[in-house]
Amino acid sequence: MKKMFTIFSFCLFLMAGTALQSQVLIAKWTFPTGNPTDSLADGGLPVNLDKAIHTEGGTSAIDFTKNGATTKAAQATGWDNGANTKCWVVSLNTVGYDQLKLSSKQQTGGNNPGPRDYKVQYRVGTTGSWEDVPNSTIITANDWTTGVLANIDLPMACYSQSLVFLRWIMTTNTNSAGGTVASNGINKIDDIYIMGDLFIGLEDKQEAINISITPNPASGPVTITCSGSISTIELFDMFGRIIYSQTSVNSRSVILSQGFAPKGLYLMRVKTDAGQSAAKKLVIQ
Fold this sequence. Notes:
By secondary structure, this protein is mainly β. It contains one helix and 17 strands. It is elongated and about 65 Å long. It starts with a helix and ends with a strand.
């Protein structure tokens, strides 16, 4: 019986490792109802379901009643004289996830052509600077097939951050008909998806420190050791929520007592007194 339990536990561990390879929906905006509540993300991690799309730079208010690629879309006018200032903006939490990919669709008006040229930029936190997302140039038209981004990679700087902003910013004042964008020019956005992988051994892409977690999988106390002096330990669940933290550790080794977290799959992140960090997967049985 004990042998069968051990095999079963090992299989669970392998299944957990396999699950990490699948892309997880971090956030999406698909505007399904045509109501103002469509400004909020309609899918993804629970931590992102209160995140709302908005515009910046002085466009009109967003209209959520217009037809989209599938259901409805977000539509705005007032894009005139908006090159490098007017944009669509969303924010999201990516803690515990890497290999982020972005998809979106944009459409311009036919009789009232809106901006033709856009690109996507990102910003980490409220005080970061806006940076270009590679391969995110968008040319819009009066259809839902031209102005499409399909699973483009978001930069590593966006990985495992508590606050990431993305914006679709117009880059010229040229409309989709080749003229100049007027105040009644229309742009719509729809089917925004951000996908990602739960961390797999990000030990660390930015800082070279070594950590070990034993045993792993664990059903009792867990020992964490680090090549540097540990300052903070954080445990994240699969939804990016911190369910356990310990500060002012000031040691290269720490033991977490049995029961510090329920059974499940987690990401353990360790920060050192020197400001370095690393993360590893932890399975609690």
